[in-house]
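Hello,

Our lab assistant flagged a job as stuck in the queue for most of the afternoon. It eventually completed. Since we weren't sure the result was trustworthy after the delay, we are filing this so someone can double-check. Below is the sequence as submitted and the structure that was eventually returned. Let us know if re-running is recommended.
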Amino acid sequence: MTANGQQQKLYLLDYGAGNVRSLVNAIERLGYHIEFIQSAADFDKADKVIFPGVGAFGYAIQAMHKKGYMESLRSYIASGRPLMGICVGMQVLFDGSEESPEDSGLGIFEGRVALFNSGTKTVPHIGWNAAQVVHADDSQPAPATVDGERFYFVHSYAVPYTGEGSQSRFVHTATRYSDETIISSVWKGNVFATQFHPEKSGSAGLALLKSFIQDDLIRKPFKDTVALPSSVKDTLSVRVIACLDVRTNDSGDLVVTKGDQYDVRENSGEVRNLGKPVDLAARYFTEGADEITFLNITSFRDCPFADTPMLEVLRQTSRRVFVPLTIGGGVRDVAEPDGSRVWPAVDVAGEYFRSGADKVSIGSDAVYAAERYWQRAAAGESPLDGSTAIEQIAERYGRQAVVISVDPRRVYVNSPEDAPNHHVIETAFPGPEGQRYCWYQCTVKGGREPRDTDVRQLVTACQAMGAGEILLNCMDKDGTNSGYDIELIKDTKAAVSIPVIASSGAGCPEHFSQAVEKTNVDAVLAAGIFHRREVPIEAVKRHMDECGISVRITNEQAT
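-- returned structure --
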């Protein structure tokens, strides 16, 4: 191996774990080349191996065994050559996981992966949190982890950090999430691994990847005093997300647009054009967006799925943007125009992940799935049968990969008795005829078709099916710049234990802080005011920081 890493043989171990394109793009962005391990024999060719993993522990272990990689990986580690694991790629190095008790890990490190307690906080743990170095070892060179630097986490399971026993010999950093402290990275001998995703952690993550590739991170045996779990601070930030509604205009060009209560056309009749999706996403990455969401609002039914324009948008974006990407629209069973094939929704999601997405957002099909859920429950049947896209994607890629996009509108009533089958709230904003109560009606087909399903019915069913996050829009607030629907957000947060993203209505920095302070929402999203530069992302974050809300401030924003 060379000091600069240019002549070494760098390999990526992919067992079919979703979005590895972003990791490849990050490595290429740093000026290096990486090969894929295609067979067990490739381990013998590698000078260094990076092992990313996303989703379920059991799926990873079973896929590794099926490909014949488990023993090859064990032998590779024993050879002393450097390994870097990421997320599930770190978890596999432990003894096992509560998620899949029948599947044993490699046992390189002592401990078991455990599910977060959803009774005290939202689960999955999604967002930017700090990795605190917990030992005093001064081995050099060391991983480029600045103590307290924020990295991007997205997981429901983790290894608890106790600071006792063998942990003093391998824990590098720990991270606190509410009332639990977890191991966020390990480093022992030739093995370094992280629970967080460096390839999605902006400049901090790129620097960490570079230190692994460029240097030989060998930590010599030692036993050191480590920090107590109580000394690790909870620094999870509220995410500020930029959303891009993407569709074709009347000339066939793919553009970012924005609706006014879901109407995306100007008075002239032309589709509102606010920029090119890849360029706009790259701008938001530079400006400090914590995540970027693409919502595809154009049907491409006449286009072969492999040629769907949004796949290329993701590929290009993931070469320039190193924060998480979500794609929504069209995540359902897709039939080829010539009838030659039907792509199951889980395979559609897989193509999006392989093209650069980290999460998929499901809208109308989530409503239909929730309706079937409650119908089966009412008939005395098991409401879960594994047939829905939500269940299948969550099983293969993990619940953190599934976002439910909700498009509700208010229906005013005079009393709860007027809507006996729905969750009714008393509102501080009476209806046009003075009604003091309302329920939130779900819609499908981009808000064009109302359904006899309310938001609480939808989100509770989707959480049970395996969804990991709720993107909560509001048709009444969309494009109004009058602030988020606080009542809707607060009521939804009370209904689920998964993270909720507030969307629709933001018009000034104060609207973002109000949403967080009044509802404890996990993330805030905006579109038009960012596109038109009416309110910069930097201004939103600085205001939230001044209000005492934890946010990620990038180096560019700090200067």
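-- support follow-up --
The delay was a queue issue, not a problem with the job. The result is valid. The radius of gyration is 23 Å. Confidence is low (pLDDT under 50) at residues 261-265.
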